[in-house]
Amino acid sequence: MPVSSSSTPPSAKFTDQPFHVMTKPIGPICNLDCTYCYYLHKEELYPKGNKWKMEDTCLESYIRQYIDVQPKDAAEVTFAWQGGEPTLLGLEFFERCVEIQNKHLRKGMTITNTLQTNGVLLDDEWCRFFLKNRFLIGLSIDGPAELHDAYRVDHQGKGSHSSVVAALRKLKKFGVEFNALIVVNRTNGDHGRRIYRYLRDAGCRYLQFIPIVERAGIGRHPEVTVSLGTDSTPFDKAADAVSSRSILPEQFGQFLCDVFDEWILEDVGRVFVQIFDQALSAWVGVEPSLCVFRRTCGRALAMEHNGDVYSCDHFVEPDYLLGNLNVIPLEELVNSGRQQAFGDAKLDTLPQYCLNCEVRHACNGECPKNRFLQTPDGEDGLNYLCAGYRKFFNHIDEPMQQMAALIKSRKPPSLIMHKDPGAAAREQQSESQRD
Ligand code: SF4
Ligand code: SF4
Predict the structure, then answer these.
(1) 73-84 per-position pLDDT tens digit
(2) Beta bridge partners of 79
(3) Distance CA 333, CA 323 (A)
(4) Paired sense of beta strands 178-184 and 206-211, if any
(5) Does the active-site annotation cover 344?
(6) Which of 197, 269, 270, 380 has the most crowded Cβ, counting Cβ within 10 A?
(7) Average pLDDT over residues 212-229
């Protein structure tokens, strides 16, 4: 499906359209010590003895400014709380957030809070609070115990699976809305079907799969890898560039194919998998909403506990510090030329190999943080996960076309589960004749 390659017009302000700030009110401090965590070592960015808690004045300034800079006609504003582990701040901190939000809320606007947690501290009181204040919870769980506990361990090295399962049960018991966030890594990456069935059968209705890609020699547990030698192709060298915990490109593609093949049998419209929804959007001809699959990005900023605003959660680094919102207004930081350039770079640096790719409309070269390979013809900037995405998006092409045709004929895409292949083909044919 052709997609225009035009970039964001330079005159368009980011704040004219929805944008997000992922807020880290406790910085990287966490009660777990997950081996693959990309954020724990961010502690090094701030002085020793730093107080890892957002001050009340900073919190109020942020909430007020964030509401103020939303587009004039915005009916809803979403706050995203992450860490580290934000629940370590205690319930009082979030009660205070809600109090300040209500104070500054614009007439006719509703507020949604999302909170990402490892679940360890969730009890009845937290769940009652989440339900009452309509928090959407992101719960990190990597599958059954032996897969989850491979990397999601506490500071004594003990697995956290039993705690997260207890949290999941509580969220369900209280009727709190939640997404399961599954980090796909080298260990659980061969178990797509099993993980999908496990979470679906545990009552998870919303799933997000996040591939773990750790550059070798970078991060909290850096690893040195061995060179494969000069005969290998750029794709062969992929494993060489990352830690042994990182998912392999083909492995990720196969994982997604396996989950999709299981989902399409009987769960369309019943279980929502973020990457499938994003892909369907692309096949319908609407640009995906998730930054990694959009042509440009830069609308998902990150803010540290002291008000420092960075270009993106994956670029919380000195070079990407835009400024502090206690000194420079948030609106100025979000609309700055630097941030616009950061977002446009996603498209401007896309290699020709991607521009020619048959699934570019769905992939768009994914996230720039993962673009550290060379294309087969030697151009820099190919995404490490390319082989996986290409495999997956081609694998789902036909069913996506069928679901897109159903949507265009104002029918639910879930009808795909009851089709015989001949009927699907006929429907597609009549759809294209109508077009
Ligand atoms: S750098 Fe990656 S994660 Fe960050 S906004 Fe861009 S696409 Fe999204
Ligand atoms: S699948 Fe590969 S070649 Fe195609 S757009 Fe994605 S990264 Fe680029």
Answers:
(1) 888 999 999 989
(2) 113
(3) 7
(4) parallel
(5) no
(6) 197
(7) 57
Where does residue 41 fall: left (phi above 0), alpha (psi -120 to 50 degrees), or beta otherwise? alpha
For residue 84, cis peptide bond before it (omega within 30 degrees of 0) = yes
Beta strand pairing call for 373-374 and 380-382: antiparallel
With bands split at pLDDT 50, 70 and 90, how would you rate the model's confidence at 315?
A: very high
Q: How far apart are the first and last CA of the chain?
A: 14
Strand (E) or helix (H) holding 334: helix 330-334
More confident residue, 219 or 254: 254
DSSP state of 291: G
Of all residues in the chain, the percent with pLDDT exceeding 90 is 78
Give me Rg for the CA atoms of the chain. 22
Type of residue found at 112? T
How far apart, in whole angstroms, are the C-alpha atoms of residue 171 and residue 329? 37
Here the tokens at position 234 are 């750029």
Pocket of ligand 1 (CB under 6 A): 291-292, 297, 300, 312, 314, 346, 367-369
In angstroms, rounded to a whole number, what is the distance separating the alpha carbons of residues 169 and 181? 16
Q: 397-408 and 386-395 helices cross at what angle (nearest 10)? A: 50
Cα distance between residue 201 and residue 203, in whole Å: 5
Distance 294 CA to ligand 1 centre (A): 9
| Tokens at 236, concatenated | 């062969």
- Ligand closest in space to the Cα of 368: 1
pLDDT, one tens digit per residue, over 91-148 is 999 999 999 999 999 999 999 999 999 999 999 999 999 999 999 999 999 999 999 9
Question: CB atoms < 10 A from the CB of 63, how many?
Answer: 24
**CB within 6 Å of ligand 2 — which residues?**
353-354, 357, 359-360, 363, 365-366, 383, 386, 389-390
CB atoms within 10 A of CB 313: 20
Cα 18 to the center of its chain, rounded Å: 16
Query: Which residue, among 404, 390, 402, has the nearest Cα to 362 in the 3D structure?
Result: 390
Handedness of CA 21, 214, 190, 364 (dihedral sign): positive
